Amino acid sequence: MANQYPGPPPEQPPGQPGQNPYATPPGGPYAEGAYGYPAAPVYGYPQAVPPQPQPQPYAQQQPQPQPAFGAPLLTLGDIAVNGDTIVSPAGSMPLRGAVWTATDMSRTEERIPPHAIVLAILFFLLCFVGLLFLLMKERVTTGFVQVGVNSGGRHHSTMIPVQSRDQVVYVLNQVSYAQSISV
Please, are residues 79 and 115 in contact by the beta-carbon 8 Å criterion? Predict the structure, then answer.
């Protein structure tokens, strides 16, 4: 079988400068592009590092502003408390003087679980012992806790789904904490 790549194509004579695709481009890797802007970086060469600002003496330094939103102190649904600000879809509100409300809209039902009914039927023939399985009860909590906040002329409320009484107590404790830090 013949060599598939015998040499350069006929339109490119061998030995012409600039034919090496791995050679440094004219002007070096950081040649100027159009309008005096740096050219696009060339593959394989490190990109130029932008110059870092020089630190000012201590007496001339200005205090840097803190970022407006950091890690939230408290989150209730889509309401977040960051420092001294309450952030919600209704907008930012001041934390100081905020009025928090919580309404428990959940309900707890007590019922016989389906597996207890099946066990009662299976063990019914064994001296009525299976009827004791009907004494099994389970508590199921469903619903929401509505949390509202009113501050700075704005109001926002959210519904937080709950599946147990422990979750209801947790949300109510979070609202109590929010009330204590908004004084």
Answer: no
